[in-house]
Amino acid sequence: xxxxxxxxxxxxxxxxxxxxxxxxxxxxxxxxxxxxxxxxxxxxxxxxxxxxxxxxxxxxxxxxxxxxxxxxxxxxxxxxxxxxxxxxxxxxxxxxxxxxxxxxxxxxxxxxxxxxxxxxxxxxxxxxxxxxxxxxxxxxxxxxxxxxxxxxxxxxxxxxxxxxxxxxxxxxxxxxxxxxxxxxxxxxxxxxxxxxxxxxxxxxxxxxxxxxxxxxxxxxxxxxxxxxxxxxxxxxxxxxxxxxxxxxxxxxxxxxxxxxxxxxxxxxxxxxxxxx
Length: 276
Description:
The protein has helices at about 5-35, 40-45, 55-65, 70-100, 105-115, 120-135, 140-145, 150-160, 165-175, 180-190, 190-210, 210-215, 225-230, 240-260, 260-270.
């Protein structure tokens, strides 16, 4: 009985993990299946798991008539630029909080953490008014500007930077390296797992954002894929096959990035919380 207990516990754990995996994969599989249905097949049997017949026309219609290519290009541009700029600003701020001493550092860091507790809806209107005042509403810069820095990114990178031994920094200072040189030549190379992990989080967040682009943009040519998919409808009908096909296309870049960066994600999350 004693030996059987670990086996039963392991089997139960595997069962729970498998159930969770099926719960997460099933909606995506159902979406892929419905993206290959004809309009008549979807109308007659919308809950079936296999299209009959298999039709890829929805992908062609989504790409041409729905202009998914344009929306994907916009989303890719927003996500790449916002991710790159935020990684730069977040890493600089995290380096200052983790490796430098200045008056009011703890107070400022505490205020920064407090902003993480505010829901995005609370700051939506103030941020929009600031964007309007700056004259960048309904522009690409207006979409990306609020994402150029983030409290979570600063906190995460600070936690990682605290794990880097001080001896490396002391040796670099003895050799005449400046603070900026230490940041560029020592901190950033060692922090690659955390940077990749944070970069993926930022990319997914910008790519998946719907509310902010909807609020700040009125030009359809600037819409990201999230808002573009919402336009696949009119007053009388929703072409669900086109919507599902566009959703599949929108998800592919995120899946590829997650698979490629999987090892860095695990290492970055594991090391960023080792020291406070």
